[in-house]
């Protein structure tokens, strides 16, 4: 097997002042593939994503192993993280409205990523930016480059975020609900672009989502999280054959087009789901 | 009381003079009494604005809206509140954070001079699937699904016959969405309510609605029966695109 991009063993995260771990015993490896993490709100999926980027300065993070390529994340200082974050691993957040600086032209914000990590003149950075805007299928990059965030649509905003993240050619991208704020017609386009870039550039992608349809269609493997633990790991294509009652409950709760109308089944949360993995 | 809804040439502009923006250029559709009617379309297409016009939360529109054959402008406010109520998208935003469920539910009863507050509150709380001890809770002491149940209880306590549902489950997890959708289905069966439901999720439309209208830039492009979703029987190009994207996204193709 090829060397994994990311290898996490027995990760536990406790927020400052919390009485118990928010995430417990999470282990997975990520190759050059698309890994989905699904679960309900509060299940700890975003917390895992943030911990990998070390964006939780006050939380206590313990693990047996947190290896990102040649870097041991457990030993990396914040100073070193500044060179890794945005350069070798980056994150795409849910809503571009809040991720972009509202009073700066979008092109400048994309170029900043490049200038921050590579020795380049402004003109070089701009050329790179325009090429990248084109790569995320923005039709008129010269014009869009000079727009402000309020002048662009949500779908275009998210494509700009993708351009910004991928400009530094990272090895790992963590997308936290990248399309939840977008309309369904735009969602597919954004996912296609993300997909294509990740595939062509051999990037490892972690897709954090509450949307089972999304991970079913756009990921290779899926981790299902409940109450801070991974209860099941599956190939996305085999999601319908899930064994764990929680996964099956989530799948059954979802209305599907063309289903016979009946009461949707409701998740019956069992306390033992929270225990079994640590036992 | 029947509560069929007729909307004729509904239009509204925001702003004044040359800067005015016409948001709804002229909306026409009708909802039968007892029907569940969906409004779908992309963000900014005017779905929620239509609901706000019907409920008179926004009242500077032109055109004609009638409920049960009566012009909505001619219905006195107190009566209107007993005829129609609205449930909003985000149960975190729509409940007052410093008011207990008791305050939230008893205020409309006081305004309308109704008797038996305690009994009415207990009944409505039970109807939405919660227990009476929730009456003394505050929003922060409840989960998202429980809050949305309280928001529905608040809408139901005046016993309206028309519910305007503005994305009632899109802020909720799929497992909680199932509970709320089941609740809405049951309440409609028990009370013969009419629903006008805004959503962006065609699977929810397919599960809940009899017919739905597809909106684009303030206009109703097409009104379709539920059966048109599977197999994509829309004729308007945008409606086709929307249904096609939803089917593809669901992996139903």
UniProtKB/TrEMBL annotation, chain A:
InterPro entries: AAA+_ATPase, ABC_Ni/Peptide_Import, ABC_transporter-like_ATP-bd, P-loop_NTPase. Its main location: membrane. One of its GO terms (cellular component) is plasma membrane. It is found in: Cell inner membrane. Gene3D superfamilies: P-loop containing nucleotide triphosphate hydrolases. Belongs to the ABC transporter superfamily. This is ATP-binding cassette domain-containing protein. Signal peptide: none annotated. Residues 8-252 form the ABC transporter domain. Pfam families: ABC_tran. GO terms for molecular function: ATP binding; ATP hydrolysis activity. It comes from Paracoccus aestuariivivens. Keywords: ATP-binding, Cell membrane, Membrane, Nucleotide-binding, Transport. It is a peripheral membrane protein.
From TrEMBL, chain B:
Residues 7-242 form the ABC transporter domain. SMART domains: AAA (SM00382). SUPFAM superfamilies: P-loop containing nucleoside triphosphate hydrolases. Keywords: ATP-binding, Nucleotide-binding, Transport. Coiled coil: none annotated. The keyword Oxidoreductase does not apply. GO terms for molecular function: ATP binding; ATP hydrolysis activity. The keyword Transport applies. GO terms for biological process: transmembrane transport. Belongs to the ABC transporter superfamily. This is ATP-binding cassette domain-containing protein. The lineage of its organism: Bacteria, Pseudomonadati, Pseudomonadota, Alphaproteobacteria, Rhodobacterales.
């Amino acid at each position: 097997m090829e060397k994994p991009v990311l290898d996490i063993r027995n990760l536990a995260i406790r927020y400052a002042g919390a009485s118990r771990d928010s995430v417990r015993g999470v282990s997975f490896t990520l190759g050059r593939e698309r890994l989905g993490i699904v679960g309900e709100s509060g299940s700890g999926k975003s917390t895992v994503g943030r911990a990998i980027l070390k964006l939780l300065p006050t939380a206590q993070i313990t693990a047996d192993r947190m290896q990102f390529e040649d870097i041991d994340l457990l030993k990396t200082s914040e100073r070193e993280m500044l060179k890794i974050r945005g350069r070798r691993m980056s994150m795409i957040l849910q809503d571009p409205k809040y991720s972009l600086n509202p009073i700066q032209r979008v092109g400048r914000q994309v170029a900043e990523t490049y200038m921050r990590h590579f020795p380049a003149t402004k003109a070089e950075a701009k050329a790179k930016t325009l090429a990248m805007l084109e790569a995320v299928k923005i039709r008129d990059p010269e014009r869009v480059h000079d727009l402000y965030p309020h002048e662009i649509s949500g779908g275009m905003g998210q494509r700009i975020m993708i351009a910004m993240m991928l400009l530094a050619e990272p090895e790992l991208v963590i997308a936290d609900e990248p399309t939840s704020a977008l309309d369904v017609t735009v969602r597919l386009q954004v996912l296609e672009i993300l997909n294509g870039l990740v595939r062509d550039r051999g990037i490892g992608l972690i897709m954090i989502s509450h949307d089972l349809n999304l991970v079913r269609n756009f990921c290779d493997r899926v981790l299902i999280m409940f109450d801070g633990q991974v209860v099941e790991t599956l190939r996305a294509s085999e999601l319908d054959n899930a064994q764990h009652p929680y996964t099956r409950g989530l799948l059954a709760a979802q209305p599907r087009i063309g289903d016979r109308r009946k009461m949707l089944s409701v998740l019956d949360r069992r306390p033992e789901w929270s225990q079994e993995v640590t036992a | 009381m029947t509560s069929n809804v007729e909307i004729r040439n509904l239009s509204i502009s925001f702003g004044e003079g040359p800067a005015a923006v016409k948001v709804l250029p002229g909306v026409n559709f009708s909802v039968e009494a007892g029907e569940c009617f969906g409004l779908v379309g992309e963000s900014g297409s005017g779905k929620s604005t239509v609901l706000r016009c019907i409920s008179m939360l926004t009242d500077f529109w032109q055109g004609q809206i009638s409920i049960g054959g009566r012009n909505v402008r001619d219905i006195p406010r107190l009566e209107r509140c007993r005829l129609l109520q609205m449930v909003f998208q985000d149960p975190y935003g729509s409940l007052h954070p410093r008011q207990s469920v008791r305050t939230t539910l008893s205020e409309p009863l006081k305004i309308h001079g109704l008797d038996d507050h305690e009994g009415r509150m207990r009944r409505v709380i039970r109807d939405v699937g919660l227990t009476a001890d929730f009456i003394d809770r505050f929003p922060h002491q409840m989960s998202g699904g429980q809050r949305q149940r309280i928001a529905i209880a608040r809408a139901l306590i005046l016993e309206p016959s028309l519910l305007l549902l503005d994305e009632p489950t899109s802020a909720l997890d799929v497992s909680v969405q199932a509970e709320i959708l089941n609740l809405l289905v049951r309440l409609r069966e028990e009370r013969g309510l009419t629903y006008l439901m805004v959503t962006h999720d065609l699977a929810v439309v397919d599960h809940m609605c009899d017919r739905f209208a597809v909106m684009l830039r303030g206009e109703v492009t097409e009104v379709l029966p539920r059966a048109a979703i599977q197999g994509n029987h829309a004729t308007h190009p945008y409606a086709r695109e929307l249904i096609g994207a939803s089917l593809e996204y669901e992996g139903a193709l």
